[in-house]
Amino acid sequence: MSRRSTGPARSRRSPVTDTSPCPCGPPGKDTYGACCGRFHRGVAAAPDAESLMRSRYSAFVVRDEPYLLRTWHPDSRPPAVGSDPATRWTGLEILETSGGSAFHTTATVTFRARFTRDGVPDTLHERSRFTRHEGAWVYVDGTYPD
User: Fold this and answer.
1) pLDDT tens-digit series, residues 36-68
2) How far apart are CA 110 and CA 2, in angstroms?
3) What predicted TM-score, i.e. pTM, was given to this entire model?
4) Which residue of 36, 53, 109, 135 has the smallest Cβ count within 10 Å?
């Protein structure tokens, strides 16, 4: 996800805890702590591009700017991500994944992320590109199909 907002990261604490349902919402997955939280804490790396996409979405939800920057390719990484306190991420839908497994070096993940800004609902529809960098999946950039 490349949506860049102004304002300081983690301007307010996230209501998500390790025992909360994971914000990325994959069916049959665990709590935030067992799903994306372990990637955010650095105890595990996303094994595929879709998992990285889901963990980056969750990082926007919990306002984890260091994780977002750490998982962004250095050639396209901005100096800061920032977090808009008026934005609340409310759901993720993965529409299509191409590549991104242990046998690939590149991938695309197309998704829709729902959010509200100042209480007004909206969606972000993006086709994100990922690549392996120093052995780990990283976000490169995205285009907007709509």
Assistant:
1) 999 999 999 999 999 999 999 999 999 999 999
2) 13
3) 0.88
4) 135
